[in-house]
Amino acid sequence: MRRSVSIIAGVCAAVTLIGMAGVLAWTRSGDTGRAVGIWHDPLINPVVTPAEDGRQHVGEVLALDRLLGYGAPEREVFRYPAASYVKLHFSRMVLVPGDYLTVADATGVESYRYDGLKSGRWAMSVTGDTAVLELHRGTRPGRDAARVRPPGLKAARIHLDKVAKGYSRQDQVTKPTGQLLRPGLTGREESVCGSDESKDAVCYRSADPVAYTRSKAIARLLINGTELCTGWRVGARNRMITNNHCFDNSDDAYETEVWFNYQCAKCGGYDVFRPTKVWGEKVLTTDHVYDYTLFTVENFASVRKFGYLTLDTGRPARGQELYVPQHPAGEPTRIAGRLGDKAGTCAVVSNAFDGYVKNSDVSYNCDTEGGSSGSPVLSRRTDKVVALHHFGGCPNSGVRADLLYKKLKYYL
Question: Any stretches that span the bilayer, and where are they (predicted)?
């Protein structure tokens, strides 16, 4: 069995387990805005160390050499003071039928169960500075739950070789973002064009409910333990899209955590909804020149409720107003584009802008940062996606959606 998860600790009724592979879903009640399963999140304003490939680094990987079970300890606590998350990596995991592992936070509120995991794979991250790993013994008729080492198993088959820990807010540094710059630019120019006019998505709930609803279709991508991009559901089927420079193969998709509903509960606040996490699954198609990767996720049923976006098959006009839901620097969902201001700077500068190839992009001055790579750029007129954001530099730019549609319509 690949990656099953369950909540094993008693918690309030706000927590909802939504089934199968790698999902811990904390939901909110209806569309009233009443927060359910809210927690104060140390991931807000994480370290924003730039990545050379455009992904945003928010953590580091440390080496481990730990055995668990069958002659070794059956419970280990991994604590890294002030870390924003802890994520364990298994070089081996061979379990006796009926046994299972759990990885939980210090309180046991966030907990994931594994009945087996391929060697050389990550477990789902847990929020906070502590991960508790425990081997649970199954039972057989006529045997005690704490049975001895099974015959033929001469050594522990559970081995951890590394851990990823998220940077703390105190470690935050002021550096240029890790966002890619368009070809021809040198240095790392700021992609917040002027003052940052983006706001928490929840600020739009009443002022622009359509934009707020559309923002629910985006997801925070935690890639290979320490790197961030943004992705989003495209079309009604199990389809996610992000940039090719975020990842371009199924192995990386398999090790990508896809977080839906990672949003602030109150405009300008620090408490956020506990996200619904699923694993990436398979890359269906990818392209470097047009900088896209289309992929699927596991346990799609648990994220279907967040809705989806559609590609606009027409090119937007110059001056057309835009908005960009995104996870800049890995923060909870923000939307760039002024609320209620028709003269905002988040508008089309050019609909024939050079990206990796001539006229491939739409350009705009909507505010983005590292971690925004892969975000949808939507038209305020149609509420459809007109570009897939990928370059900074002011103007920033995204690959034209009409070109993407021609390449992806077979898959959608």
Answer: none
| pTM of the shown model | 0.82
Residue type for position 340: G
CB 68 within 8 A of CB 156: yes
> 93 and 101 in contact (C-beta within 8 Å)?
yes
Distinct helix (H) and strand (E) counts, the chain? 4, 29
In a domain? residue 238: yes
CB 138: neighbour CB atoms within 10 A?
14
d(CA 386, CA 171): 36
φ, ψ for residue 311, nearest 5 deg: -80, 135
Contact 201, 335 (CB under 8 A): yes
Q: CB within 8 A of 93, min separation 6: which ones?
A: 101, 114, 116, 117, 118, 119, 121, 157, 158, 159
Query: For residue 379, what are its two tokens?
Result: 């038209």
Tell me the C-alpha distance between 234 and 127, whole Å.
Answer: 28
What residues are paired with 195 via a beta bridge?
none
- Please provide residue 350's backbone torsions phi and psi, each rounded to the nearest 5 degrees: -145, 140
In this structure, are 145 and 213 located in the same domain? no
241 close to 280: Cβ distance less than 8 angstroms: no
- Residue 170 confidence (pLDDT): 60
Distant-in-sequence, close-in-space partners of 91: CB < 8 Å, separation ≥ 6: 119, 120, 159, 160, 161
Residue 3 lies in a domain: no
CA 167 to the chain's CA centroid? 16
- Where helices occur in 160-309 by DSSP H, the ranges are 204-207, 209-215, 250-254
Average model confidence (pLDDT) across the chain:
80
Q: Is the pLDDT of residue 47 over 50?
A: no
Q: How many domains does the chain have?
A: 2
Q: What share of the chain is helix, strand, coil (3-state, %, to 5)?
A: 10, 35, 55
Residue with tokens 């983006």, as numbered in its chain: 198
CB atoms under 10 Å from CB of 86, counted, come to: 26
